[in-house]
Write a structure and sequence with these properties.
Helix content is about 40%, strand content about 10%. By secondary structure, it is of the alpha/beta class. The chain has two domains: about 140 residues, Rossmann fold (3-Layer(aba) Sandwich), CATH 3.40.50; about 60 residues, DNA polymerase, domain 1. The chain has a six-stranded parallel beta sheet with strand order 3-2-1-4-5-6, covered by helices on one side. Strand 2, helix 6 and strand 3 form a beta-alpha-beta unit. Helix 1 packs across helix 4, helix 3 crosses helix 4 and helix 4 runs parallel beside helix 6.
Amino acid sequence: MTIRLLGAAFDMDGLMFETESVYYKAAEVLLGRRGYPYTDELCRDVMGRPPRYCFEKFIETYGLKESWEELSDESEEIFLEILKEGYEMMPGLPELLDRLEACRIPKCVATSSSRRVTDAVLAKGNLKERFSFVITSNDVTLGKPDPQVYLTAARRLAVPPRNLIVFEDSSAGIEAAKRAGAVCAALRAEHNSEVDLSRADLVVETLADPRILSLLAPV
Protein backbone atom coordinates (compact mmCIF):
# COMPACT_ATOMS: atom_id res chain seq x y z
CA MET A 1 0.00 0.00 0.00
CA THR A 2 1.54 3.29 -1.11
CA ILE A 3 -1.05 5.78 0.18
CA ARG A 4 0.41 8.22 2.69
CA LEU A 5 -1.71 8.07 5.82
CA LEU A 6 -2.24 11.45 7.47
CA GLY A 7 -5.03 10.72 9.97
CA ALA A 8 -6.62 7.84 11.88
CA ALA A 9 -10.16 7.16 13.06
CA PHE A 10 -11.01 4.45 15.58
CA ASP A 11 -14.24 2.62 16.16
CA MET A 12 -14.56 1.94 19.90
CA ASP A 13 -16.56 -1.12 20.97
CA GLY A 14 -14.88 -4.39 20.05
CA LEU A 15 -12.00 -2.48 18.49
CA MET A 16 -10.45 -0.43 21.30
CA PHE A 17 -12.14 -2.29 24.15
CA GLU A 18 -13.67 -5.71 24.65
CA THR A 19 -17.11 -4.24 25.32
CA GLU A 20 -19.13 -6.26 22.81
CA SER A 21 -19.69 -8.83 25.56
CA VAL A 22 -21.09 -6.05 27.76
CA TYR A 23 -23.50 -5.06 25.00
CA TYR A 24 -24.47 -8.70 24.56
CA LYS A 25 -25.25 -9.10 28.26
CA ALA A 26 -27.19 -5.82 28.30
CA ALA A 27 -29.29 -6.93 25.33
CA GLU A 28 -29.93 -10.30 27.00
CA VAL A 29 -31.20 -8.53 30.11
CA LEU A 30 -33.28 -6.02 28.13
CA LEU A 31 -35.00 -8.65 26.00
CA GLY A 32 -35.10 -11.18 28.83
CA ARG A 33 -37.24 -8.78 30.86
CA ARG A 34 -39.76 -9.08 28.03
CA GLY A 35 -39.50 -12.83 27.67
CA TYR A 36 -37.41 -12.91 24.50
CA PRO A 37 -33.93 -14.24 23.66
CA TYR A 38 -31.04 -12.25 22.24
CA THR A 39 -29.82 -14.47 19.45
CA ASP A 40 -26.43 -14.57 17.77
CA GLU A 41 -28.14 -13.79 14.47
CA LEU A 42 -29.69 -10.63 15.91
CA CYS A 43 -26.34 -9.70 17.45
CA ARG A 44 -24.57 -9.96 14.09
CA ASP A 45 -27.31 -7.89 12.47
CA VAL A 46 -26.96 -4.93 14.86
CA MET A 47 -23.18 -5.05 15.45
CA GLY A 48 -21.60 -1.71 14.71
CA ARG A 49 -24.94 -0.03 14.04
CA PRO A 50 -26.28 3.13 15.76
CA PRO A 51 -28.80 2.83 18.63
CA ARG A 52 -31.88 3.64 16.57
CA TYR A 53 -31.20 0.84 14.10
CA CYS A 54 -30.51 -1.65 16.90
CA PHE A 55 -33.63 -0.99 18.92
CA GLU A 56 -35.93 -0.66 15.94
CA LYS A 57 -34.63 -4.10 14.92
CA PHE A 58 -35.57 -5.42 18.37
CA ILE A 59 -39.04 -3.88 17.99
CA GLU A 60 -39.45 -5.37 14.51
CA THR A 61 -38.20 -8.81 15.54
CA TYR A 62 -40.34 -9.23 18.64
CA GLY A 63 -43.20 -6.77 18.17
CA LEU A 64 -42.21 -4.73 21.21
CA LYS A 65 -44.52 -1.88 22.23
CA GLU A 66 -41.95 0.61 23.51
CA SER A 67 -40.32 3.25 21.33
CA TRP A 68 -36.70 2.79 20.29
CA GLU A 69 -35.78 5.73 22.53
CA GLU A 70 -37.32 4.05 25.59
CA LEU A 71 -35.48 0.83 24.86
CA SER A 72 -32.24 2.74 24.29
CA ASP A 73 -32.50 4.56 27.61
CA GLU A 74 -33.20 1.32 29.49
CA SER A 75 -30.38 -0.48 27.69
CA GLU A 76 -27.90 2.28 28.56
CA GLU A 77 -28.70 1.95 32.24
CA ILE A 78 -28.20 -1.81 32.06
CA PHE A 79 -24.98 -1.42 30.06
CA LEU A 80 -23.46 1.08 32.49
CA GLU A 81 -24.20 -1.19 35.44
CA ILE A 82 -22.59 -4.21 33.76
CA LEU A 83 -19.64 -2.05 32.68
CA LYS A 84 -18.79 -1.51 36.36
CA GLU A 85 -17.91 -5.22 36.57
CA GLY A 86 -14.88 -4.45 34.39
CA TYR A 87 -13.75 -4.59 30.79
CA GLU A 88 -10.42 -4.90 29.03
CA MET A 89 -8.49 -2.90 26.48
CA MET A 90 -7.95 -4.78 23.23
CA PRO A 91 -4.40 -6.15 22.80
CA GLY A 92 -2.07 -3.92 20.84
CA LEU A 93 -3.99 -0.68 21.32
CA PRO A 94 -1.35 1.09 23.45
CA GLU A 95 1.40 0.21 20.98
CA LEU A 96 -0.68 1.47 18.04
CA LEU A 97 -1.49 4.76 19.79
CA ASP A 98 2.18 5.21 20.66
CA ARG A 99 3.14 4.63 17.03
CA LEU A 100 0.59 7.12 15.71
CA GLU A 101 1.77 9.73 18.18
CA ALA A 102 5.42 9.11 17.28
CA CYS A 103 4.49 9.65 13.63
CA ARG A 104 2.49 12.78 14.50
CA ILE A 105 -0.62 11.35 12.90
CA PRO A 106 -3.75 12.92 14.44
CA LYS A 107 -6.45 10.52 15.55
CA CYS A 108 -10.07 10.50 16.65
CA VAL A 109 -12.75 8.11 17.88
CA ALA A 110 -15.78 7.57 15.62
CA THR A 111 -18.29 5.28 17.31
CA SER A 112 -21.92 4.26 16.90
CA SER A 113 -22.39 4.40 20.67
CA SER A 114 -24.10 7.28 22.44
CA ARG A 115 -22.15 10.11 24.03
CA ARG A 116 -22.99 8.89 27.53
CA VAL A 117 -21.80 5.34 26.89
CA THR A 118 -18.73 6.53 25.00
CA ASP A 119 -17.61 8.80 27.82
CA ALA A 120 -18.02 5.96 30.32
CA VAL A 121 -16.01 3.49 28.22
CA LEU A 122 -13.21 5.93 27.35
CA ALA A 123 -12.75 6.77 31.03
CA LYS A 124 -10.58 3.65 31.30
CA GLY A 125 -6.97 4.78 31.24
CA ASN A 126 -8.02 8.36 30.43
CA LEU A 127 -7.82 7.40 26.78
CA LYS A 128 -10.07 10.23 25.65
CA GLU A 129 -7.20 12.65 26.25
CA ARG A 130 -5.12 10.91 23.57
CA PHE A 131 -7.58 11.74 20.78
CA SER A 132 -8.19 15.03 19.02
CA PHE A 133 -11.97 14.59 19.31
CA VAL A 134 -14.71 11.99 19.65
CA ILE A 135 -17.68 11.51 17.31
CA THR A 136 -20.66 9.55 18.68
CA SER A 137 -24.13 8.63 17.43
CA ASN A 138 -25.32 11.92 18.92
CA ASP A 139 -23.12 13.86 16.50
CA VAL A 140 -24.32 12.44 13.15
CA THR A 141 -27.69 12.04 11.49
CA LEU A 142 -26.81 8.90 9.54
CA GLY A 143 -25.17 5.93 11.23
CA LYS A 144 -22.86 3.26 9.89
CA PRO A 145 -22.82 1.83 7.20
CA ASP A 146 -23.45 5.35 5.92
CA PRO A 147 -20.06 7.08 5.47
CA GLN A 148 -21.09 10.29 7.25
CA VAL A 149 -19.17 9.54 10.44
CA TYR A 150 -15.88 8.94 8.63
CA LEU A 151 -16.33 11.82 6.21
CA THR A 152 -16.89 13.99 9.28
CA ALA A 153 -13.79 12.54 10.91
CA ALA A 154 -11.66 13.27 7.83
CA ARG A 155 -12.97 16.82 7.60
CA ARG A 156 -12.34 17.56 11.25
CA LEU A 157 -8.87 16.01 11.07
CA ALA A 158 -8.26 18.17 7.97
CA VAL A 159 -7.11 15.22 5.84
CA PRO A 160 -8.49 13.87 2.54
CA PRO A 161 -10.56 10.70 3.13
CA ARG A 162 -8.14 8.71 0.95
CA ASN A 163 -5.37 9.56 3.44
CA LEU A 164 -7.41 8.44 6.45
CA ILE A 165 -6.96 5.00 8.01
CA VAL A 166 -10.02 3.64 9.80
CA PHE A 167 -9.82 0.88 12.41
CA GLU A 168 -12.99 -1.22 12.55
CA ASP A 169 -14.39 -4.57 13.64
CA SER A 170 -17.87 -4.73 12.06
CA SER A 171 -19.11 -5.12 8.50
CA ALA A 172 -21.22 -1.96 8.89
CA GLY A 173 -18.17 -0.01 10.01
CA ILE A 174 -16.02 -1.33 7.19
CA GLU A 175 -18.73 -0.42 4.69
CA ALA A 176 -18.86 3.12 6.12
CA ALA A 177 -15.08 3.47 5.86
CA LYS A 178 -14.89 2.22 2.28
CA ARG A 179 -17.84 4.36 1.15
CA ALA A 180 -16.01 7.34 2.63
CA GLY A 181 -12.99 6.47 0.49
CA ALA A 182 -10.75 5.67 3.47
CA VAL A 183 -8.24 2.87 4.04
CA CYS A 184 -9.67 0.31 6.47
CA ALA A 185 -7.92 -2.10 8.82
CA ALA A 186 -10.26 -4.60 10.47
CA LEU A 187 -9.64 -6.44 13.73
CA ARG A 188 -10.64 -10.10 13.88
CA ALA A 189 -11.51 -11.19 17.43
CA GLU A 190 -13.71 -13.67 19.26
CA HIS A 191 -16.83 -11.50 19.15
CA ASN A 192 -16.76 -11.11 15.34
CA SER A 193 -15.37 -14.50 14.34
CA GLU A 194 -18.30 -15.08 11.97
CA VAL A 195 -18.58 -11.52 10.62
CA ASP A 196 -17.61 -10.83 7.01
CA LEU A 197 -14.58 -8.52 7.09
CA SER A 198 -13.57 -9.11 3.49
CA ARG A 199 -14.10 -5.51 2.31
CA ALA A 200 -11.35 -4.26 4.62
CA ASP A 201 -7.97 -3.47 3.09
CA LEU A 202 -6.25 -5.38 5.89
CA VAL A 203 -7.52 -7.90 8.47
CA VAL A 204 -5.44 -8.41 11.61
CA GLU A 205 -5.74 -10.28 14.89
CA THR A 206 -4.01 -7.63 17.00
CA LEU A 207 -3.72 -3.87 16.71
CA ALA A 208 0.03 -4.29 17.14
CA ASP A 209 0.26 -6.26 13.88
CA PRO A 210 3.50 -5.18 12.13
CA ARG A 211 1.57 -4.75 8.88
CA ILE A 212 -0.37 -1.87 10.43
CA LEU A 213 2.69 -0.28 11.96
CA SER A 214 4.55 -0.50 8.65
CA LEU A 215 1.85 1.61 6.98
CA LEU A 216 2.52 4.48 9.35
CA ALA A 217 5.42 6.73 8.45
CA PRO A 218 6.47 9.99 10.09
CA VAL A 219 4.70 12.99 8.58
